[in-house]
Amino acid sequence: MIGYVAGRSWLHRAHPYTPLALAAAVLLLSFAFHTPVPVWLMVAAALIMALATGTIREVLGPALLLATPTWLVLLVLHGLLGEPPKAPFGPFLLSEPGVARALVLGGRIGAIVIAFLAALATVSPARLVDGMTARGIPFGPIFLLVSTLTFLPRTRERAARILEAQQARGLRIGGSPLARFRALVPLVLPLVLGALAEVDEQVLALETRGATSGVRRTPLDPPADPAGQRVLRLGLVVVVVVAWAARLTNRI
Amino acid sequence: MKLRDLVVIRLGVIINLVIGQVVAALLLPLFLDAVGTILVAALVGPWAAITVGLVSQVLNAVLSGNFSWLPFGVIQVIIALYAWLAARVGAFRRPWTAAPAGLVLGVIAGSTAAPIAYHLFGGATAGGVMAVTTALRAVGMPLELAVRISSVSTDMLDKTVAFVMVSLILRALPNQLRARFPAHA
Q: Would you call A77 and B23 a contact, using CB atoms and an 8 Å cutoff?
């Protein structure tokens, strides 16, 4: 959908945890608020984040693509088919409480999608790995996040090759739903069994690279994490905790 | 966690993410986004399967850009624990024992997903479920009930097929390969 977009903004140069913390704060605050105005302020905050990183053009298209179908369904489910009282809006009669609820739910989704797409656009995966390694994060979590993303395209290619090979052998992937269900087995079985057979080989390859040594690794060029950014992240935690405390005590 | 478990967990995550591609090519009304979680639960154990489920949920969000679905991660934990228990009682030995076990998981997972879908997303979630919800609401059903019915019915079908699929995979494992997974052997 969207990956890292090279740039020189403050968030591009920041420690990778900082843009991720900003996006996580938008997510948690969006769920803490339950009226349209503060939720749409979160959308504005996410848009400002994308603008500040210079990735607004890359972020806005995918964000609209992801959020628009949900917004339309929310409008139908809560606006058109919502509870009375209803008010005329052009040729339609829309539920007033339904529209308010759709605005809250739609705003949350918009804010979360924009904030995380902006964070993904500014966080270089390599810098994130260096940042995690420098913080002493064990090999396991780093391996799972990074290696899986590296392996995924290869497995997708293999799935496409198996599909072509089975079709060449006469497998029909069209027809009735039952026929398509039957086609699932000859496609999934070779893919999974082939991958399971390679597990030992991959374990051996990782062992020879010292993955099990248990020694803390040292990145060559770890990203700097100035005190200001650490304070900012701590501040975000405080804001989220205060917002949720206010929400749980019905003060917002 | 052992290195071998890590490699199997990675495999489980990849299966979760790639089978969706096969399902889309076949135009099936399913997600099948937990086959890897169920398989790892049967082959390795509950903690590995929970890790597969949660990492899949995060990576799915990273790849699609839609992080608003992260709260559904709790469903992956339920799937992992249930699949491990099902494996312990031998539910995967035959497809016809796996199918009813999958059906029950569908009811549990769908019932758990429905309140999340209703309260956090107002019923507007993913493709097939969303279409069923809208259709039921259009014929006058209350939204909360429409979300519950659509969520449970789609999950029952999805998890039944996923359990049968994992049963077929485990039955097709060559003995040499099976012996390398003590939890399954």
A: no
